[in-house]
Specification:
With about 400 residues, this protein is an alpha+beta fold. About 25% of the residues lie in helices and about 15% in strands.
Amino acid sequence: MLQYWRRSLPSPPILFECVFLSSFLFFFAKKERTSSQNRDERATMIAQGRFSTFQRMVFVFLCFMTLFNVRMSQGMAANKFSTYSASMRVPSILHPVMGQLPPVSLWKSVDSIASGAIIRDCWDCPELVVVEPGKFQMGASVTEEARLSVAARYRDRAMPQHVVEFPTAFAVGRTEVTRGEFARFTEATGYIANGCWLMVEESWTYFADRNWKYPGFEQTDKYPVVCVSWEDARAFTAWLSKNTGETYRLLSEAEWEYIARAGSTTIRWWGNDIGVQRANCAGCLDRSFTASLITAPVGSFPANLFGVYDILGNVSEWVEDCWHENYIGAPNNGDPWVLGRCEFRSLRGGSWLSPPTDLRSAHRDRETPGLRSSVLGFRIARTIRPSKP
């Protein structure tokens, strides 16, 4: 009820909300007192700040929910209407029940969403962060590739450098899509994604009986899903779009690099050197989370300035674009480049099995859209609808 009230009015100051909740407590808490004497005693208790144990428990609970709502609205513009999403997590025991409920507008934005807002369109949808419009210089310089002795097969793929400008905001997954999120998709739709290429004794080998559930190493639902193709990723975004009424999709290459750079002009968003405790890759200097070469749980390393985790390393991420050998003729508005060699699709970011030279904001790779391997995953994007006039 309170959520519906907040959805239809501008977000009130927190003090006003506490007063509202306190009034609710005092007028509706169970207290079997009917005589005028008892009513006087209750008024005296309230005036002196003396409350029953039950009242205190309810008050603490309501204040906790108030603070929780503050977290939900972080990043929202103060002069906009509240834009709530289902940021609370539902206990796993309720997933079978909640999964049957249709999406409702209560957890969708009701007005424009401010940059930096964290949103979620359904109880168990991936968490997104809104990225502001802007422009940046896309691609790698000659000096960058020479400095790192980039392998010949990767040279010149990220050239020429060019300016890309985004006219509108968009939302991006804070983490790569997890094994648990992909599992809910397959359970809801019956989608099958079998067969996967695994690295065995320094050689890629295809296993028909391996898949995202059994990728050749242990994972929990908090790990990024692997052994998924570009086609699988598109099926996942189509399912989310149908369930939520929003437009989910893969990132364009330009959007991906804009997020990866997060305002930086260095080789990586944190600087030029690979450093320690920054990302998960085969040549990274810190592997405190595990003793072997595998994926790491999403969010194991610091987020960049956009609030996005694991944009470099962990899994190579499918993006929407068809493959092009360089940036000659590339769009400058952030749209995906879907004309050209669409027998290949682009990959960005490097993986847990990649050397540090692949963990660069400008690094590009490609694969056939139907290929699944233990280093391939994806991250989702969501189009932000224009605000109403």
